Amino acid sequence: MSTLPPGPSGLPVAGSTLSFVRDPFSTYERWAEEYGDIVATNIAGRTFVMVAHPEHIERILVTDQQHYGKGSFQRDQLGDIVGDGLLLSEGEFWHEQRNRLQPEFFREQLTQYATMMVDETRARADNWTSGETITLNSELQHLTLAIMARTLFGFDIEDAEGQFANTARTISERFNLSHVSTYLAAWIPTPRNRRYRRAMNNLDTVIYDVIEARRAQDDSPNDLLATLIAAVDDPETDLTDETLRDEIATVILGGHDTAALAMTYTLTALARHPDAEAEVRAELDEVLGDDDPTVTDLPALPRLDAAVKEAMRLHPPAYTLFRESNRPMKIGEYDVPEGATLTIPQWVVHHDSRWFESPWEYQPDRWTDEFEASLPEYAYFPFCGGKRHCIGMRYGLMETKLVVATLLQRFRFDFQLPELSFAAALTLQPAEPVSVRVTTV
Ligand code: HEM
User: Fold this and answer.
1) Highest mean pLDDT range out of 15-19, 253-257, 312-316?
2) Residues with beta carbon inside 6 Å of ligand 1?
3) Contact status, residue 368 vs residue 78, Cβ threshold 8 Å
4) Which atom of ligand 1 is nearest to 105's Cα?
5) 435: which strand partners?
6) 223-242: average pLDDT
7) 320-342: buried (b, 16+ CB within 10 Å) or exposed (e) per residue?
8) Which atom of ligand 1 sits closest to the CA of residue 89?
9) Structural domains of the chain sorted by starting position, each given as residue range(s) with its CATH number in brackets
10) Nearest-10 Cα torsion for 220, 225, 228, 230
11) Is the pLDDT of residue 11 over 50?
């Protein structure tokens, strides 16, 4: 006899929809408290199974990964945006594309990007005047977009900034788990869907312009865009310009908003924890003095590393993963039907007191070698894990640390909101603009 996981019951359509849509974060937490590590529920007619124990998560992402695909829930939501790009593609096609793109994220390449990252950060910060209030999350989103455009696609974002303005946020909002329409098709003409359509059109225009300009260029830089264009132009492959568009959209959307959030949450956490901030500043003074940070400095900055790691624990930019079982599976003692949508919430696991003492406190000091050695593998997984782990993990971590270090060397950030609150969009968005006053140090 099959044993389904426990979970909240209710009318089949409304099911758990209302409470979840009202507040996905506390609903996830409540389910974990009431029903345990594996919880089944029905949201807008779809079976969701939340899995929140590191051992089960490891089975899904690593040991049994061949039985869990990216799934129809994610494809319905994101298929339009990222198409057959790396995030959603599967099987042999995914494997070949991953191998093709991976070298762009190797250590030697990253070293070349580091200087551009610091240069772009300085240029952005030069626009800030001491004493003014800025919207930190938007500033950092523009910055990471500019960094990505320059390092991976060799173009200057200023040419396209107008078209890009708010694109990522609009697209991320379309996925907001707190809106009933997220569970409905994107073609239904709600105002949010219309904004989303416009953002998508802008994104496509920019991407196709960039491809065209690069093809017309005589001496192309040796970057991710060059690698992708060479693959499409290679008669041995049957890749098309559409594949190219999908990979570019995937990298842009997967890579800049997440990194901007990691930076936002690190800087706001430090601004609210003066002791932790003082330790990071003292370390930067000692190791860097007035010099710009370089990639070789990073291993000498353990406090900065812990500050970022802890911010990504407390506020994981990708706050939940989704997978779909492609055959009936057993998770722990429960049966999970074929086609169930699994939700694997970093939000719950990173705040679980079984793994993290005082889980809601920002405590960078917890990240000692002994603590890390004692932590179950999948109690902390801001970049996912297994074969589908984030291809941009090293890039994103390096970028976050270089940007945070460069900004702290120049400014003090005074957080202007009473609290941070969050929206469960595609990524963990701040619910309100993050206003901070910047003062030159
Ligand atoms: C620093 C912040 C970042 C975070 C928190 C983050 C998080 C993640 C997570 C959780 C996944 C797995 C998604 C899933 O399996 O459903 C992922 C995948 C991915 N990320 Fe990131 N990411 C970050 C930065 C980046 C950067 C900088 C890039 C590109 C430059 C990038 C590109 C991608 C791509 C292409 C995938 C799909 C990989 C595949 O399935 O083969 N990410 N990321």
Assistant:
1) 312-316
2) 86-87, 98, 250-251, 254-255, 258-259, 262, 317-318, 321, 382-384, 388, 390-392, 395-396, 400
3) no
4) 30
5) 135
6) 92
7) bbbbbbeeebebeebebeeebbb
8) 40
9) 17-440 (1.10.630.10)
10) 0
11) no
